[in-house]
Design a protein that fits this description.
The protein is of the alpha/beta class. The chain folds into 2 domains: 9-121, Translation factors (Elongation Factor Tu (Ef-tu), domain 3, Beta Barrel); 133-258, Nucleotide-binding domain of ferredoxin-NADP reductase (FNR) module (Rossmann fold, 3-Layer(aba) Sandwich). Helix content is 20%, strand content 32%. The longest helix is centred in the last third of the chain and has 13 residues, at 234-246. The chain is globular and about 50 Å long. 35% of the residues are buried. The structure holds flavin-adenine dinucleotide.
Amino acid sequence: MTRVRQRTASERTPPSSKQLMSPFQTFAARLVRPVSLSAQTRHLEFEISGTTRFGFVAGQWLSFKTNKPDGEEITRAYSIASPPGEDSRFALCLNRVQDGFMSNYLCDMKAGDEISCQGPFGDFILRPPLRDTVFIATGTGIAPFRSMLHWLLDDSVRHQDKQLWLLFGNRTEVDIYYHEEFLALAARHPNVHYLPTLSRSAPEWGGLRGYVQEHVPAIVQGRTDMHAYICGLDKMIKANRELLKGLGWDRKSILYEKYD
Ligand SMILES: Cc1cc2nc3c(=O)[nH]c(=O)nc-3n(C[C@H](O)[C@H](O)[C@H](O)COP(=O)(O)OP(=O)(O)OC[C@H]3O[C@@H](n4cnc5c(N)ncnc54)[C@H](O)[C@@H]3O)c2cc1C
């Protein structure tokens, strides 16, 4: 699996509000570096033309716009997969959807190509004060959590040694995007618990097996004073929300972003 470059600490400081671009401004994003995360999935690093700094909050998304060959305009949302930084860069983590136009268009882009986008949008962002938190993702639903975790862990004032679980579900081991990176984060931060789980694991897989929701009760251990952030496809989000509500959680403690 290809390694993804980590930003330095100075690149990860969030911008002040006066440097934020207007979310309704359309800008051109130039692909700087495409990285294959698996056969169908890419990590794409973009740079926004005409600005030195791009402000957003970890967890937000951008709206990408292009035209199909018949001229029809198409827009699609993609979560930002990198933490806020001091520059005009951001990254996406996306997979090819069968017969989908935008996902394949973005995955086919070459370094130097440009695409139009607007944003940042969305309120799937960390709610203060930070609590012990479980982040639950499947597939490319990992994108906002990569942004949030790097931002939080960059500064102990932000994460305050709260216990942070990352429960990440995929089918097989090759589908675990950013695996080495999350292992390294967990090794550096005793308060980070990285739990990849596989639904179609090989016999030699030594980690968790099954769907993400099967592991949530063991993480929360009867507690209802935590936050859960969930990101991915509707079915998985529903299963986890129902489970947590059944465990007595207040719905305000369960935040989610649906991709479909
Ligand atoms: C707020 C938000 C953030 C998102 N962030 C990301 C992200 O970070 N990474 C990412 O890969 N995607 C993300 N998505 C999904 C993305 O916006 C597109 O829906 C997806 O890439 C498909 O677009 P398309 O034009 O290729 O296919 P479409 O033409 O829209 O869809 C083709 C077919 O695939 C189905 N489909 C649509 N989306 C998916 C999907 N995700 N998985 C399986 N089947 C699907 C559709 O129902 C349709 O039948 C996000 C969606 C939202 C709403």
